[in-house]
Amino acid sequence: MKTIIFLSLSFFASSIFNVSAHDDTSTTTNSTTKSRSQADLDRDKSSKPTQILIFSGIKKGDHVLDFLGGNGYYSELISNLVGSKGKVLLHNNKAYIPFVGKSLTDRESAGGLDNVNRLISESDDLQLGKEKFDAAILVLGYHDFFYSEHNWSFPVDVAIPQLLKSLKPGGRFLVIDHAAKNGAGISVSKSLHRIEDNFVKEDLQKRGFKFIKESQILRNENDTRDIKVFDAKIRRQTDRFVYLFEKQ
């Protein structure tokens, strides 16, 4: 049975992403992703997007929201996955644009976002619509809901109800973030850019989501979880939780 399951997943990955059977990093090489940069290919090694998207359940024809999606790393891959009958919306707010900078414009110029719609909107009026999306993803951004500073404010109480409303009944929500120490809650969301995994699970279940499952694919037991995620010692290698929820 395990062999059958493994072969099924391998076929899925190969058919959607044209991933080499000998490529442990799951780098995507499909012709529609030839525009991807060397930085993308390097990131694939630690982000493992093929496995993540298999876990998400996103499929051909789906309408997907890449929420606070930054430079469109995942938007480009999801666009390839959902195909011509699917749709992808890459969302950012104004504060994110300077942060992602040239990598976003380079992706656009290379044609990586040709089949991706763009939206820039703020938390008080996200303009996501009602019951539009089969799935949404939020990668390394949930902790950002829990602090504010001079150029950043994106309150969870304002943003998440709108995101929930934008999902179709039974719509899925994939959340990936840097794990903080047990018991830390949101206390290091600003200082370390981390958040406690159990806090996120409980928080979203209070906000209309049902917890479905988790993946260990991005876990790193060698991360002490008390280091800022941008520190060279741990950057791109943090202990990250991968949770999948469903709109109740």
How would you portray this structure in words?
- With 248 residues, this protein is α/β, with parallel strands linked by helices.
- The chain has one domain (45-247): Vaccinia Virus protein VP39 (Rossmann fold, 3-Layer(aba) Sandwich).
- The protein contains eight helices and nine strands.
- The chain has helices spanning 2-17, 38-47, 49-56, 73-82, 96-100, 102-109, 156-166, 197-205; strands at 63-66, 87-92, 117-120, 133-139, 148-149, 152-153, 167-178, 209-215, 240-247.
- The strands form two sheets. A seven-stranded mixed beta sheet has the order 3-2-1-4-7-9-8, with helices on both faces. It has a two-stranded antiparallel ribbon with strand order 5-6.
According to DSSP, the number of beta strands is 9
Report the sheet-strand fraction. Answer: 15-25%
Query: Quick one: biggest sheet?
Result: 7 strands, mixed
- Quote the average pLDDT: 89
Kindly name the structural category: alpha/beta
CATH architecture title: 3-Layer(aba) Sandwich
CATH topology: Rossmann fold
Alpha-carbon Rg, integer: 17 Å
Anisotropy-based shape? globular
Regarding CATH, which class?
Alpha Beta
> Strands of the largest sheet, in order across it?
3-2-1-4-7-9-8
CATH superfamily: Vaccinia Virus protein VP39
Number of discrete helical segments? 8
- The ordered H/E elements are HHHEHEHHEEEEHEHEE
Helix percentage range: 25-40%
- What is the quaternary state of this protein? single chain
Report the span from N to C terminus: 32 Å
The figure for the number of domains is 1
Low-confidence stretches: 1-32
